[in-house]
Amino acid sequence: MAFIDLNNVTKKFHAGEEEYPAVRCVSLGIESGEFVAVMGPSGSGKSTLLSLVGGLSHATSGIVSVDGIDLGALGPNKLSDFRREYLGFVFQSFYLVPYLTALENVMLPLTVQPGMNGTAGAAAQDALRKVGLAAKTRRFPSQLSGGEQERVAIARAIVNRPPVILADEPTGNLDTKTGDQVLDMLQDLNREGHTIVMVTHNGENAKRAGRTIEIRDGQVVSN
Amino acid sequence: MKLIDIAVNNLRRKKGRTFFLVSGLALGIGAAVALTSVGDAMNREVMHTLDEFGANILVLPATEDLPLSYGGMTVSAVNTGGRSLTIEDARRIKTIKNSENVSTVAPKLLVVSEVKGTKVMVAGVEFPSEFKLKKWWRVSSGMKPGGVSEVLVGKDAAAKLGIAPGDTVKLNGGTFRVSGVLGDTGSQDDALIFADLATVQTQFRKGNAISLIELAALCGGCPIEDMVDQVNGVLPGARAVAVKETVELKMQAMHYFHRFSLGISLLLLIVAGMIIFFAMTASVKERVQEIGLFRAIGFRTGHIIQVLLIEAFFVSLLAGIVGYVLGSLSPRFIAPYLMSAYNLKFVFDPVMAVSAVAASVVVGLLASIYPAVRAGRLDPIEALRTL
Question: What is the pLDDT confidence band of residue B218, given thresholds at 50, 70 and 90?
């Protein structure tokens, strides 16, 4: 069994009376330390796949497991704990909390991490330094450029040193140059040992990854 | 950074929203506090007025006889012997422990005389205290007695005896001038002639005897039974009784006021709670993505609820304090329109302050529980729609 393992996974959504499968009978494995790009046109189910791996939704059928943990067997609170221990999320629209400074945003995951009270500030400073924002820790999101906001989001994703980083269109809202910097950063993190799963519909971005999984209509077409 | 910091930072950095929440609840609390304190003050004033309105304690000679009716005034005691009351007894009432609660002491001597061949009851009274006690007395023609040899005649007595202001009447040999006629009182006062107490005592050779004493006690703060006991204590030869109906009527009036202000306060708190409820629900809606993010990065349902309830706690704590201060200051501006005499000083009332803040916090938290729990249960995937 792979580190991240999907075994015959189907995820159906309900739209009124109708039921449509966003992911159909997908089986795939991602090993620890890989950098995988999940590619496909919009509506292909790639984001749904990411949410399944991220424990944000349960599979309708099949088994999703990470590090041998069957996510389908976890209740809401255990699933929260799993996300806290294993995952760092980077979203396309950053999702920074507007009333918290860059530093406070990065510290967020640590506020619910037991035993982090004394060291949270230092850990957040560290993470911000890593993404090159050591000088702007006291800025609010509205006082940062799009690229800087994305870097804060990455710092937040890595501050609790999660084994897996899940990135959903991390360059979607950025210009090419800033997007390249973000991809460089993700490659660096991968070299440091983080497993990275990145959803994108941009072929250029996908080339940065070690492996590309292509999805169409909820099914894997190339792996 | 802890959960409390998230809550506090949200409140600090969204000042407009915080201000709206705090002022919404503070207005409700403040109005309730103002209403309660104005209500209390009005209560006191109404009680005071009611207390002065008629006698609520009657002091009679200790006798075995059943009193003959005149709103409790007994005629028999003086005439049938036994130890009668004296004017000194009336003065001694002022020495009881709660003497400051005694608003009026009205001693009376009742005697029977003959005017133009008709028997009539003459009441020797001290006119100033009598008028204070019987606020319903109106002199319908003529004027109040000005000197010791002037009398006031009840309406029926004046009609029966055919006397008018300016006339003179002979009472037990003494000549008295009728200064005025009382308007209709609907009581036995209508059939009486009222004269100065000391003059009646001399004219009828009663020494310093009196028949009874009527008392108006201010019993807003003290049980009337205590006052009765105290009077009995200083007057061993007398029997003080409480006029129960009057007392109960007053208590009832007080309870109506009390219940009214309590009801309105409750209504205000419910409205304030609803403001908080809707504001919190709107705030949760507005923060759906933020809550989804919190969930995605590992916050449990309980963590989300905690953050929101901590916010609600601080908002309602602040609102309670602001509301108390507003509510205690505002009667200074409202009260003069409602009543004649009100103590305009701001007095810190710890019981009221604690109750206001506690009520605010309870209302704030109760109103926030449902929105907070709903927020905590938000499906993170619904909240973060892009994933």
Answer: confident
Task: Answer whether residue B286 shows pLDDT above 70.
Answer: yes
pLDDT over 80 at B18, yes or no = yes
Q: Rounded mean pLDDT of B355-374?
A: 94
Q: Is the pLDDT of residue B255 over 90?
A: no
Classify B102 as helix, strand or coil: strand
Interface-testing mutation among A42, A58, A80, A92, with chain B (most B C-beta atoms within 10 A): A80
Distance CA B348, CA A155 (A): 52
Q: What is the CATH number of the domain that holds A55?
A: 3.40.50.300
Compute the distance between CA of residue B51 and CA of residue B100 in angstroms, rounded to an integer.
13
**Does residue A27 sit within a domain?**
no
Cα A158 → chain centroid: 10
Q: Is the pLDDT of residue A15 over 60?
A: yes
Up-side HSE of residue B244: CA atoms within 13 Å toward CB? 0
| Short-list B335, B357, B262, CA closest to B30 | B357
| A94 contact B CB<8A | no
A197, part of any domain: yes
A111 close to B (CB below 8 A):
yes
Q: Which residue has the tokens 């210009």?
A: A175
Confidence of residue B77 (pLDDT cuts 50, 70, 90): very low
Identify the three-state secondary structure at position A28.
strand
Total-model pTM: 0.73
Residue B33, Cβ density class (10 Å: 0-12 exposed, 13-18 middle, ≥19 buried): buried
Q: Is A60 on the interface with B (CB under 8 A)?
A: no
| Residue A210 forms part of a structural domain | yes
What pLDDT is recorded for position B80? 46
Domain span at residue A201 reads 32-59+87-222
Q: Which of A58, A112, A138 to mutate to test the interface with B (most CBs of B within 10 A)?
A: A112
**What's the pLDDT at B51?**
67
> How many CB atoms neighbour CB A219 within 10 A?
15
Domains held by chain A: number: 1
3-class secondary structure, A86: helix
